[in-house]
Amino acid sequence: MKTYTISELAREFDVTPRALRFYEDKDLLHPTRDGLNRVYSTRDRARLKLILQGKSVGFSLSDIREILDLYSLEGHRAQLKLSIKKSRDQIRNLEKQRNDLEEALETLRNGIKWSEEKLAEMGPGAEVEQSARAYEKVARAGLDGDVAHS
């Protein structure tokens, strides 16, 4: 049977060894021990892959644990049914989040458009006039200085 070290799995899945120890602490992975070293089985590797996939789509660790543990308790059929149910629920959640984000983006875009229109109606502000006066003062000083040197 193929086994993996913590470093091998961390490298393969681009996670830190600390993350693997965290998943072990959360009872999601169950490596055996060879002295002080953790030894991961192909089953642990498969579980890690499912953990990371679950996380990438927004499942909580408790949802992931429930799906993973169901396989051990009731078999693959029950696990697949629960996985389908939780996936459908997550799709609904993500679609709602997407709609909420689209609404927030639209509100921000409308606010920017309104603000830009108001600024255009107001014309150049005091800061523009102040900047123009400062530029004129520097330009005059430069011209006056050039005339004095002629």
Spatial ordering of strands, largest sheet: 1-3-2
Rg, rounded, reads 31 Å
Number of self-contained structural domains = 2
Q: Kindly state the mean pLDDT as a whole number? A: 89
Element-level helix/strand string: EHHEEHHHH
Task: Indicate the overall shape.
Answer: elongated
**Which range does the strand content fall in?**
5-15%
Classify the helix fraction into a percent range: over 70%
The major sheet is characterized as: 3 strands, antiparallel
Count of individual helical segments = 6
- List low-confidence stretches: none
Distance between the termini: 94 Å
The computed structural class is: mainly alpha
Task: Tell me the total number of β-strands.
Answer: 3
Q: What does this protein structure show overall?
A:
By secondary structure, the protein is mostly helical. It has helices at 6-13, 17-25, 42-56, 61-74, 76-122, 126-149, and strands spanning 3-4, 32-34, 37-41. The protein has a three-stranded antiparallel β-sheet with strand order 1-3-2. α3 (42-56) crosses α4 and α4 (61-74) packs antiparallel against α5. The chain starts with a strand and ends with a helix. The model has no long low-confidence stretch (mean pLDDT 89).
